[in-house]
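Journal club prep — side note

Before the paper discussion, L.F. wants everyone to see what a predicted structure for a comparable chain looks like in token form. Sequence:
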Amino acid sequence: MSQRRPLRLVLFLLDLLRLAALLGAMVAFRSAAKGSPGGALAAHAVAFASPQALFPVLSLFMLLDPFKYQDYAPLYLTGKLVSAIAVTSWLAASFSETLVALELTDAAILSLAVAGAFSAVWDFVSVALTFFFLRTTPSREDSTYRPELVVDSVDADLGGK
């Protein structure tokens, strides 16, 4: 497990970076769209990025205690796949139409494109890393980790049982 800990740390740190990039792009998107016809749409863009904060939190939990939180990995994978497909589809299908409708500045266009591309690429990479962790992390039944033994030893140390 300790050999994979640096990879789990990278997963967590890049999830944090992804969240910062998304929030930064959404704020730039909203600021650049003020006064344009699509400004009302841009006002809700930050609301899109907020639930994305669950990804770094879950990757932190999987870093700290992979045995305890490995059951949540499929939920993490599902969220990442949905996010990656949604961002990739949006970049491919309607990115340019959105830019024309919102009359964004060049800086806002660039930050939005970079954040979207980084988000989509990182989502696919994190899915691959999480599959790797699931395949290489032993299940609770196969490991020597037994929470009940820890509780019993603490009780014994405290004078119980």
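L.F.'s comment for the group: The chain has one domain: 5-157. Keep this in mind when we get to the figures.
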